[in-house]
Amino acid sequence: MWIAAVSLVAWLWLLLCQGFFWRTDVRLPPREDPGRWPSVCVVVPARDEAAVLPASLPSLLAQDYPGPAEVFLVDDGSTDGTGEVARALAAEHGGLPLTITSPGEPPAGWTGKLWAVRHGIALTRAREPEFLLLTDADIAHAPDSLRTLVAAAGSDGSGRFDLVSQMARLRVESGWERLVVPAFVYFFAQLYPFRRIGRAGSRTAAAAGGCVLLRADVAERARIPDAIRHAVIDDVALARAVKGAGGRVWLGLAERVDSVRPYPRLDDLWRMVSRSAYAQLRHSPALLAGTVAGLALVYLVPPVALAVGLAAGNAAVAVPGGLAWLVMTGTYLPMLRYYGLPSRLAPLLPFTAFLYLLMTVDSAVRHYRGRGAAWKGRTYARPAPVTDEPSP
């Protein structure tokens, strides 16, 4: 009986005290266009992205941006002709200038993506940009995306942001995508409530790596990406580094920034989550145990308590379990609406949470079997502590 009551109390606390994480109205802050449009360099790390580039790269090249802008695609050791596809797309579509380069294999202590980002940022220094747009190769941008990001960053005053990030709208076409993807964003917002991230003086920091606009001088002051070179969850680490350097961060949901990468099977989604879940827990068995217990208490107890209470005719168990499940379902509805999905999926959140619990445990198992965070042919072990010594 007490477990069901504790679960209900946890949900009431999440509903009212966790930054209203369940609301989906945190969008780019409206701003007037600046009097002078600052220069921007777009850095796109890409590893084996030939399949998705035709749906994403032309959208970057076609940006309707009034100021100086240029795109740098960093081919991170691709074996599928990513660079050739990018060149062909640039020749076919034109638009913003495109530079394609390759940094070679990352040295020890670097993830491949951050090594590519480092190489791209180094190339942009000759242009002396005021902003950097770090965006993934599977992200498609509306024609005014860069314009609205820069305007939202502001130029002065208390509303000025040093990092503006949008959580790209992920694909929800397959059945598994509809079941798992909205919950992924929902859980992320629960851990990092968007309203708290943008609040002046708040210590909560996170970003969405698919779309990050960053002031170049702040990137240099925060030693981006050298300071986070080992990070598997690089977007959260980046935001923390920016806040640590005194910068302000904003994160919200995107309206016309979309991921074009398909995750049609459960196995695809499983690998996406499990590759970094244990890294999120800092490879700590204690945090893993606490997370598993927390997921069970918050997401699994309510439906189990309701079913057991009804079967045993015990209202003291059924009522708090049913109320907790009701609150859970209600907080999930806004995210389903954001993705244009039917409300009938909301009561299935406990099942999806159970899948995430299994993915998290699997992530730890992979780590202890020496497979760590595996992605596109590379495996990253637990990182060593970062020192202040110069990077390679």
From TrEMBL:
Organism: Streptomyces griseoviridis
InterPro entries tied to this protein: Glyco_trans_2_hopen-assoc_HpnB (IPR017832), Nucleotide-diphossugar_trans (IPR029044)
Gene3D superfamilies: Spore Coat Polysaccharide Biosynthesis Protein SpsA, Chain A
Protein name: Glycosyl transferase family 2
SUPFAM superfamilies documented for this protein: Nucleotide-diphospho-sugar transferases (SSF53448)
Keywords attached to this entry: Membrane, Transferase, Transmembrane, Transmembrane helix
One Gene Ontology term of the molecular function aspect: transferase activity
Annotated TM spans: 286-308, 315-333, 345-365
PANTHER family for the chain: GLYCOSYLTRANSFERASE (PTHR43646), SLR1566 PROTEIN (PTHR43646:SF3)
Pfam families to which the protein is assigned, alphabetical: Glyco_tranf_2_3
Highest taxon in the source lineage: Bacteria
